Amino acid sequence: MALPLPKVTLVDYGPDEAAMVRYRAEGRERAMALGNRGPIRFDGQGNLHPDILDAYWRCGFYVFEGVLKPDELDDIERDVADLLERAPTERGGKLDRHGRPALGTDCKARNLFMVKPLSDAYGGTDFANGRHPAKMAEPAPPPDAPSHVPQVVLGSLQFSDACLRLYGHPQLLQVAAAINGPDFTPFNESVWVKHPGLGGSVAWHQDGWTHWESSELDADTHGFNFMAQLYGCTPANGLWVVPGSHARGKLDIKAMVEAAGCDRLPDAVPLVCAAGDVAICNRQAIHGSFANTSADVRVSINFGFHRRASVLGVTSGGVHNKVAVYDEDRIRQRSRLIAYAIDARRQRFPDERPYRYQPFATEADQWRWTASTKAEIKDYNLLDLGI
Q1: What is the pLDDT of residues 295-309, one digit of tens each?
Q2: Does 202 fall in a domain?
Q3: Its pTM surpasses 0.90
């Protein structure tokens, strides 16, 4: 199934094109030498293999290869195509191209973000607590480009059953427990689309903002994101990460860019993934992406998790959700999406052994994914646990 993507004339980085080509090639070589990729593996006791944990804590990210099979990728592709069909025809528009109410227009939360082609919408602005301090290069868009293109859909589990089922993937949830403990909590979920020849950049940043000054700050305080790849990703359209930066606290990204003399940080490496690979990236790692001047689309299904100790009793918000106290009730309400996802996946993949989520282990039978529960989770992302 082809995604409904606009066809445009491809452009390059202009005077920087040759430098970008070299940077991508050298970055790919560095990435493939890190030793932080391979299938999900567990030891004889069912624990995540220590080699994977060692590589993750050393690099701040890991590429799990071959996690998603063709049938699940087909499900996701159909849902992503539907999301794009339902996108508004213009930024702030209320109707899609078929004249129907556009995606998320009946929601309280803002769910769809659109950007100007090949632009950096966040760099050098106050967006998200100013965590994107340096602007990325913005290649000139092609003359036949639309004014804006969809970039990210938030609260994606309410719009896509396939994304919800992926959220309940038993091995990925087992990885989450290995890193954040069996009582891990949700963060938020999204679908990122990097349009070929049009996709905008996301300036270098570290995701966390709440705990940088904490005396208990460590390499896992702000959690992680899974990034499942529908078509794979390349140095041209994928995320780039600075290995090891997750364990160095809050870093001066603006000074790093100034020292580099451009937006090409010299130590960064790209996530290189095939279709069905799932990367895990620490939220404290410096990461970002360049404008996608390539002919390849990148679709990433993102979902993140926290340690319970990082969110319980914390007052936070303002980026992914309104400022609030994350008490036990809020965490429980938000965590019910994990329980629903596990049951939705059980119905679609009955031969799998479902994950047993510890906080709801004694009441798993109460959480059944049905048409009525689908209606219930509308605007669930107002309860996101951003830190």
Answers
A1: 999 999 999 999 999
A2: yes
A3: yes
